[in-house]
Each structure stands twice: as C-alpha cells, then as structure tokens.
Amino acid sequence: MADITGKKVAFVLTDGYEDSELTSPWEAVQGAGGQPTLLAPKDGQVEGKKGHTQAVDGPVSGADASDYDALVLPGGVVNADHLRMDEDAVALVRGFVESGKPIGVICHGAWILIEAGGVEGRTITSYPSLRTDLRNAGAQWVDQEVATDKGLVSSRTPDDLPAFNAKVLEEIAEGVHPR
User: Fold this and answer.
1) Domain holding 62: CATH number?
2) What does the alpha-carbon distance between residue 124 and residue 73 come to, in Å, rounded to a whole number?
3) pLDDT of the chain, 179 residues: tens digit per residue
4) Looking at the chain, which runs of residues are DSSP E strands?
5) What range does the domain containing 88 cover?
6) Which of 11, 44, 80, 97 has the most CB atoms less than 10 A away?
7) What's the predicted TM-score (pTM) here?
C-alpha cells in the first residue's frame, strides 16, 4: 500500500451518495496515513442512500483546491445529480482539474467531472449508463475495473473498490500530474 502520510484528501459529496464509495476510500486514505476531509454544500451531516451518515467537515463554498493534495468523488445517482448543479461544488472540482492534482471518481461521480470540464481527451470509466454522457463530453470511455489517465482514477461500481482504492493511493503518493 502507498504511503500518503500528511496528504490532505478532499471528499466532495452530498446526500444520496453510495455509502461504500465514501467509506471504503475514506478508510483507505486514513490507513495510508492521509487526512480525509468531507466537503459538502450543506452543514451538519450527509446521509448515504443506504443510511450511512457522516459529519461534514466544511462547506464546498469556502474550499479551495490549493488546500488539498487530492480529490475523491463518490457516486450515487442522487449525490452526483445534485452536486453537478451546485456551482460551488463544480468550481471546486474545476480547481482540482486545472491543478493536475490526483482525482478519484467512481460510478456516477463522473457527472461532476463533466460539468467541471474535466473529461475532454481523458480515458475514463464509470457506471455504464454514463458512457454516452462521457463520450459526448469528449472522453474516451472504457469498460474496465479501474482506468487511470495522468492522475485521474476512475472505476465503475462498488465491486471495483479494492482496485480503485489501491490506484487512488498510488496516484496521491505520486502527486501532481501535468496534463
């Protein structure tokens, strides 16, 4: 497992996220020495579609990509649909895209990357129903467990979490990836 001691990792999500797509990468980041931070459009706590709740550490409105070493975008249809319509969340994600810092995205989380202009010319995977959305946004969509493109790590579903977590940690350890 990669050592990411001291690295700050932003997790951006809201209610309706896929529970394991938050909890599994969060635990992986902590286990590798990283410092996960949950950023959301609302205060208090967020609730996953299967009932997991977690405290929000800060608002997306006050967050800046320069304060973090990497970003993780969990999926969940409701979560991703709401985040892609939140201007502050999209602006934060765009900041990560422009910085070249590692980004991990799984399942429907790719909708946020599309909105932030982060997929054009990139190889990415996702939940299969996003294939056309990603291709229309200029991405090269692939159907595989994990895809990596210059620091952008993507996976399809919770079944892919072991490979996703390992690759996200590896990319965080490597640092910024110029496009």
Assistant:
1) 3.40.50.880
2) 14
3) 799 999 999 999 999 999 999 999 999 999 999 999 999 999 999 999 999 999 999 999 989 999 999 999 999 999 999 999 999 999 999 999 999 999 999 999 999 999 999 999 999 999 999 999 999 999 999 999 999 999 999 999 999 999 999 999 999 999 998 76
4) 8-12, 35-40, 45-47, 53-55, 58-59, 70-73, 103-106, 123-124, 140-141, 146-149, 152-155
5) 8-174
6) 80
7) 0.97
Question: What token pair was written down for 164?
Answer: 């996703």
Kindly state whether residue 1 falls inside one of the protein's structural domains: no
116's tokens: 């932030």
The domain total for the chain is 1
Q: How far apart are CA 102 and CA 172, in angstroms?
A: 6
Catalytic residue numbers? Answer: 107
